[in-house]
Amino acid sequence: MDETPRWLSPEEQRVWRAFLRMQSELMTQVGRELQQESNLSVADYSVLVNLTDTPDGRMRFLELARAVEWEKSRMSHHIARMVRRGLVSREECPDDGRGAFIAVTPQGRAAIEAAAPRHVEVVRRLVFDHLSPEQLTALDEISHQILARTGEAS
């Protein structure tokens, strides 16, 4: 069996590096503007979006960790910080003494509602305002094709 690595061609290497740079710079810029405008980190925003997308504003701890794609320990530490800031609360699960719900608080809901318009404007300005309909379709298809290969397609 041939163990020779399948090195990237110069074009593939150029595209891969541009993709990594784009992803890093995009998340840095979005995060910076979100923090400056709303005092929320991208992580805070992600947690709050997931909670406010549910009808009662709460999710089981492990379900939320899966939704934001974090390990249990990272989730636990981040939720503890958000609880201290009054953005979320931790509620015991009546059906499972070991489980817990994470719920958005009124303060957390107010924070996400204030941040969302600015956040969407930043995303629109940095990404969508500069793509043609054909490029948007291509980006969607490419993203879903890659996600399908990593097992994350929705």
Question: Could you explain how this protein is built, in words?
Answer:
This protein is mainly alpha-helical. It has a domain at 33-121: Arc Repressor Mutant, subunit A (Orthogonal Bundle). Helix content is 65%, strand content 12%. The protein has a three-stranded antiparallel sheet with strand order 1-3-2. Helix 1 (10-38) crosses helix 5 and helix 2 crosses helix 5 (106-126). The longest helix has 29 residues, at 10-38. The two termini are 35 Å apart. The mean pLDDT is 93.
Brief account:
The chain is mainly α. The protein has helices spanning 10-38, 42-52, 61-68, 72-84, 106-126, 133-150; strands spanning 58-60, 88-93, 96-104.
Task: Sum up the structure in keywords.
154 residues, mainly alpha, Arc Repressor Mutant, subunit A, 3-stranded antiparallel beta sheet, 12% strand, globular
What is the strand content?
5-15%
Structural class: mainly alpha
The residue fraction in helices comes out at 55-70%
Biggest sheet record? 3 strands, antiparallel
Any chance you could write out the topology, listing elements then pairs?
Layout: H1 10-38, H2 42-52, E1 58-60, H3 61-68, H4 72-84, E2 88-93, E3 96-104, H5 106-126, H6 133-150
Antiparallel strand pairs: 1-3, 2-3
